[in-house]
Write a structure and sequence with these properties.
The chain has 156 residues and is mainly α. It has 3 domains: 2-36; 40-71, no CATH class; 73-152, no CATH class. Helices cover 50% and strands 10% of the residues. The chain has 7 helices and 3 strands; from the N terminus they run ααααβββααα. β2 (94-100) and β3 form a beta hairpin. It is extended. InterPro entries: PIN-like_dom_sf.
Length: 156
């Protein structure tokens, strides 16, 4: 939390002194605030136990939750997620993505594939090479360029 406080103080100091505030000042604050709110494994396990004791079904995942969601998904169900890699899981067909004010974008994955004229494998590749939770785009290429390259490939 000390890094967060020093970043906030530096930003506040620049504002008070009427110095130019740049994007990196805000990003510095955001980075340090994000790291200040990390849940330890013990805290997550305690929360899961509390929820179970209060009648909730809790699934703890040793890896990304998407893998557990995809393995439990049954035809006709809906996944609600902001995570952009949900469509790459072959078992998932319907995704509701919350946007704001209680509104959702509804993705019917088979319809998306038909509209883009690609198959599920071709959808998975951009999910890996484009910006995601783990890495940025292929150096100097954006998502649209990645997609156009993958679309020219035969079935993967």
């Amino acid at each position: 939390m000390t890094h967060s406080q020093s970043s906030i103080s530096a930003l506040e100091d620049r504002v008070v002194k009427k110095l130019r505030v740049r994007k990196h000042h805000f990003l510095d604050v955001k980075k340090h605030l994000s790291s200040a709110f990390y849940w330890s494994l013990d805290a997550r396990q305690a929360f899961a136990q509390y929820m179970r004791q209060n009648g909730w079904t809790m699934v703890e995942c040793p890896t990304e939750t998407e893998t557990a969601i995809a393995s439990d998904y049954k035809s006709g169900e809906v996944v609600i997620s902001r995570d952009s890699d949900m469509p790459v899981y072959e078992s998932i067909n319907t995704i509701w993505r919350p946007i704001s004010r209680g509104l959702f974008l509804v993705y019917d994955v088979p319809d998306v594939l038909r509209t883009l004229n690609i198959n599920r494998s071709q959808l998975t590749v951009p999910g890996v090479v484009s910006r995601n939770d783990y890495n940025r785009n292929i150096y100097s290429l954006g998502s649209a360029t990645n997609f156009s390259i993958i679309k020219t490939l035969q079935e993967v």
